[in-house]
Amino acid sequence: MTPSQKAAALRDDLADCEGVLVAFSGGVDSAVVAALVHEALGDRAVACTARSETLPAAELDDARAVADEIGIRHEVVAFSELDNPDFVDNDGDRCYHCRTMRLGKMYEAARELGIETVCDGTNASDPGEGHRPGLRAVEELSVRSPLLDHDITKAEVRAIAEDRGLSVADKPAMACLSSRIPTGLDVTETKLTRIEKAERLLRTWGFEQFRVRDHDGLARIEVDPDELAAALDPEFARAAREHLTDLGFDHVTLDLHGYRTGSVSPAADDESEAEAVFDQQYPSN
């Protein structure tokens, strides 16, 4: 089947639902699900974004804009992963703890709206990417994953988004801010705040694919290999050192390997999990 045919089958499959709430980050996966659900159900479709300390404010703004672009009703719920000691401890199951809490808020919102069905954006490429504790939470909570159910891969998701003219069709993968903190180091609001501000600066300076890793006060900047030359510019080095130390980092470094997932975790797919959780909303390190 072509991506277009799979999208039509997904839409038809959900058309019999009385209502659907889509866990929505505004990433390409959740945006495609939201668009197809909205095509199938109209006003009975709702996109819901969970706001917390791990979600950059700019991403919440983007989610609102994408929901408006689709024309789907958009709700925002708030919670804090930092209320969960298991999440703060940042062990190998951090994404499981996060996703369990996040999806729990989705079900609460759905019940308040009288909706029984909750969908996420897990796609057919996700289960094959190794250790994915977040997918365990999806299974335990009986969340529907229509992209996975209809064997729609990440590449096909982007093709469907492009076909519908969605602005996020080529949006780079994003992960929650906690994925920038190495496994075993506590996740704190202070770290999340300085990471968010540091990455906002890099985006302002024109970088597109990057991460700022927080090694207990040491900032390790990763940029896409294609953007490495710009990061090696002495003016950038000076500005990065000056601004990131002002944000509270003790040291600022540039990783010459460039941006790559899994670089702060013993589990190489840890950020892949976080990116998938973010993209699906509820999200690759």
If you had to describe this structure to a student in words, what would you say it looks like?
The structure is a single chain. The protein is α/β, with parallel strands linked by helices and 285 residues long. 46% of the residues lie in helices and 13% in strands. It contains twelve helices and seven strands. The protein has a four-stranded parallel β-sheet with strand order 3-2-1-4, with helices on both faces. A three-stranded mixed β-sheet has the order 5-6-7, covered by helices on one side. A hairpin with a 2-residue loop joins strand 5 and strand 6. Helix 1 packs across helix 2, helix 2 packs across helix 8 and helix 5 runs parallel beside helix 6. The protein is globular, with a radius of gyration of 19 Å. The C terminus is likely disordered.
